[in-house]
Amino acid sequence: MKKIPFAVVKMVNIVLLMIPFLICWTLYYEPRTTTVGSKQVSVLVMIIFFLICYYFGQRLDCFRVSILQIRDVIFGEVLATMITDIIMYILIWMLSIHLPNLIPGLITWGGQCVIGVIWAYVMHQSYFSTHPPLRTIVIYDERMGMENLIHTYGLEKRFNIKTVYPVESIMDKLEVMEEFDAAFLCGIHSRERNIILKHCISHKIKLFMIPRIADVMMRGSEQIHMLYLPILKTQRYKPSIEYQIIKRTMDIVVSGIATIVLSPLFLITAIAVKSDGGPAFYKQKRLTKDGKVFEILKFRSMRVDAEKYSGAVLSAGENDPRITKVGRIIRACRLDELPQLLNILKGDMSLVGPRPERPELQKEIEKEVPEFGLRLQAKAGLTGYAQVYGKYNTTFYDKLLMDLMYISKPSILEDFTIMLATVKILTSKESTEGVGEGKDKLELRESK
User: Fold this and answer.
1) pLDDT per residue over 390-406, tens digit each?
2) What is the DSSP-derived secondary structure letter of residue 302?
3) What percent of the chain has pLDDT over 90?
4) Are the C-beta atoms of 144 and 161 separated by less than 8 Å?
5) Fewer beta carbons within 10 Å, N or C terminal of the chain?
6) What is the DSSP letter of 315?
């Protein structure tokens, strides 16, 4: 595998996933379409399948076997094939005389899931048996603990950390880095980072950097040519009118359909919460775009007097004594968040965006992270970049970085990808850890 270009490996992956679909198309769906016997149409259908599956495979990280855990690769394979098969079913429906039977498609998807699981395991084993871990150096300034994170998430097979240096100790002896294959930069200021970056590029050292706030904001800069010079234009979050129209339309359509389809679940959950004593719903003031205050709607999961003595505090996770018995169940299933679909229909929230904070907590957070208000450039969301790629107990500074990653480059495709990836966190215990749970994080040594 070491000698085979990884692009070829990805192609083989998609071809293997295509085999069950090809069999299903040839034996069942194609004979029942208006184009029966047309080889050109069959070829076109296969090409469309390949392109769609490859695209979503890329977006859902199906091919990142070197840095992802097996379960994440499997999730990407399963979800990418599911989306592709749904799109192909709609296409087949358009080519068919009657509504095509869904059962063969479901069987096909089952076969693809089996292939995806086997592929993920084989790829994972093959990659690490042929690729020795990279000899790695960690250089830190304000952030420490990268070596602990690598150990916690099982990346020792990919990165063999040989040494850890504070940045001030290595600036006068950069030649030390030349014996390493990779380097991690954690919280390094721009001056030192730029020097190290140039040195790594010159000596073919792979560099992994945790960005600072300004780095992320610059990510969305517009590249222009002015005064006969290359210039980066950066401004406050200002998505195009086309994006805003499509995003709002998607919010209304998706949340409206979801509200109707899930209405029986709404009713059952409301009755269950009500039976636990107290009201079924809970309103709470939150902040959305430009600091506007709105009332978020949730199914109540805590005692009615949960904050009578403590005031506004974050949940301590599943061990929080304020959570009711029913609340523990609906939190585990994320059912407490369902009423926010009504907030989306009303326009206070979007499907995707930074999660809204309470005004009191926002003020407290800004004492620690003054830039935290930069998240309020965009409308609050039911799910977001930080929810998909972080955890509940991710530091506020890191949540800000992740939300700014989303804000810096708004796109419908990114929104769609985040919505798909949200399915993953619905089954992840890590995403619900409370404050104080899980110590596998980078620590800030001093204020930014």
Assistant:
1) 875 578 999 999 999 99
2) B
3) 55
4) no
5) N
6) -
CA 191, CA 163: separation in Å to the nearest integer?
22
Q: How confident is the model at residue 448 (pLDDT cuts 50, 70, 90)?
A: very low
Give the β-pairing of 134-140 and 159-166.
Answer: parallel
Alpha helices in 369-437 (DSSP H): 385-389, 396-408, 412-425
Do the Cβ atoms of 437 and 251 come closer than 8 Å?
A: no
pLDDT in tens, 318-345: 566 778 888 888 888 888 899 999 999 9
Cα 431 to Cα 78, 82, 151, 191, 301: the distances in Å are 20, 23, 19, 35, 17
Q: What distance in Å separates the CA atoms of residue 219 and residue 143, rounded to the nearest whole number? A: 21
At position 341, the amino acid (one-letter code) is: L
Contacts of 227 (CB under 8 A, 6+ apart): none
- Between CA 428 and CA 118 the distance in angstroms is 22
- Residues 229-262: pLDDT tens digits? 999 898 888 899 999 999 999 999 999 999 999 9
CB 234 within 8 A of CB 217: yes
